[in-house]
Amino acid sequence: MVFKLKHKAFVFVLLVTFNHLGWSSAMMGDDFSCHDEPASEEKHGFSWSTLSKAFDSPWKAIQAYWNFESIPNHGKYDNFCIKRDCDLEDFPYESLTEKEKLERFVEGPCSPITVLPGYLASKLEILIDCQELQTSEPQIFDACGWNTCEDVQFWEFWKKKPEDRYNVWWYNIFGPLALPMNFWTPNCFRQLINLDEREGKQDFNMHFSSPRGTQVRISRQMDEDFECGLSAVESLGPTPRFGTQLSRSLGDLNQVIRRLGYQPGLTAFGLPYDWRVTPSEGRTSQQFRRILEFSKKMTGKRMVVFAFSYGNLQFLYNANQMNQEDKDRLIRHHIAAMPPFQGGGNSITQLLGSSVAQDFMLGGTTQDVIDFTSGTSSIFELIFKNGVELMKDEPFYKELLDRLKLEADRSKTPEWWKENGDSNPYPFMPNPSENCAGEYLDHRKRKTCFLPFVDMQNKPFLQIEEEQFYLTEKDLKRLMLDGYSPLMKPEFVERMYEKVAENKLNMNLNPNIEMTVIFASHLKTMQSAEYDYQPSQNYGDIFTEADREVYQPGDAILNTSGVLLGPLKWSWEYDQRKKASNQTSETPYNSAKAIKFVEYCSLHKNHQDLNYDDNSYEGLKCRCMDPDWAAFDPVGILCNHFTSGYDENFIYYVANIAKGLPNAPDYNEIESQNLTESDLKRIMRWCPTMNSDSDEFDFHALTQLTF
Known about the structure:
single chain, alpha/beta, seven-stranded parallel beta sheet, four-stranded mixed beta sheet, 10% strand
């Protein structure tokens, strides 16, 4: 245990210190601007001199922190989305009005973009009705250190009145809802943020509500710097460049989006959400559809949707609520980065009482973790799902097993794969005759490529004493409902579980949207956990950790098998559609779209191609493959699930999709021609797509909305 804590502390120091240094060697992609302008060769990245300076003294570490940009500013990306007059050497972007920028965006190469963050990565705030909270929830009022609702004079130091609103999470680091847990009100956060089946006012359409006298909503939603959600999905710390791998969120990606010339609220949107609840319980369904329709009327172009981690479950649920005609009309592309389509093992061990949630919270007692975990229905969307049980008899899965058997056959030499690779199942995926890791990632037993999938049909994901649990609906229900978790009341869990089952995200329903799936397989990731004791009987003042864990390839949080199961099915369905179209026969997969599999920290096929006529694979070099960085981090642990989102290579890969996919405007759909400059500024200020309460879409009403 001592070693484990020291190891965590060491990794935390590294993350806080080096999250903020820039990285070099971005994959820049093609230049679609008027003139061929070479990328800046200026280095903003990691070096050994930077490392030594950061560790010489705290003061030098601070200097290193402030002296480096997080993402190098390659000039070729500046205002790329704003169509320029090519006969002008110095195009006056700064003098353009918002209306002129919008008109030139319509004529330019870029697609509008929506950004969905991962779990815990949306800024939230809590609104306090002091009188109601004090009357209805006196124990919470006391836990937060408050004792009055009357105005307090400056000299009445013994009186503590709550403010009208507080930022949740890292954003207000010294407030009562701050993380890490503060010493003055350690129980405040967990009690205010907790969801329960309470009578009275309910949030949205949820079955579970916040404490009476409180309302949780997206942070700064009515503020001038909200930027239509973009500011709510970045920089959860008190400054844009402070925090951990969780709190950094998507700030660096948004930085590049702004450089490209996107206009928040007109052509770029953030979609933050209440991460405590499942997709069906929050408000993202109305907001997502409103953003798509609004952007189409504004630009005539279809949307590129970027979703990170849990944001992909939000996207998938919302896409499944749309008919195919509307999806084809409104959505150009989905970038699914590190998607937990089949959940992850960390959520299982968290429910069994491990310190995983404590790592997120950077502090807290076992009771804090109980309340934090039991108060979030979303945790049930993140546990392992039974997709393999549902898909094991389908043709795509049988072909997948055939491919795995071929890779396991040691008699199949690299020469055999070179001659026969294209005739095997999933031929677009790299095979053992090809090299994916190069000279990097020392821990990988195989430098050659392979399909990083493990068949879990007959493998338990959990063992408690002599009892084994498999990825079946029966065993997952048994684990949740039969009292194995020390954190949950069975009756509460049952209602949560039923609500999650209604979303049908375990069924791998094809969204039928062209997609890029970014995944990783270079890090050990939990496949199963074994306990020699009953966690529910041992949980108390200490956390209940697994005695042993079995690993498979992944990104340290999600194993690759769970990420790829759905996309491999969807790619197979697209292949069937293509075969049927060549034979002029009908197929149930007429709406299936191509899937591109992009492996983070792979050197195979390292050139970005925006052709989506066929299923395909590409490698995406990560910063851990930079020679200087690799010498420091040969395993690639700092290129994990969370930190991938602010790797320069990753960010510019995403930007190249948004700026490079063909997406001609449909001028018949555009209704923004008559909007004035003041109309556009009002829209950017008030973000009607997020702040409207109407379930009906009315473009002209939204453009006139003020608050």
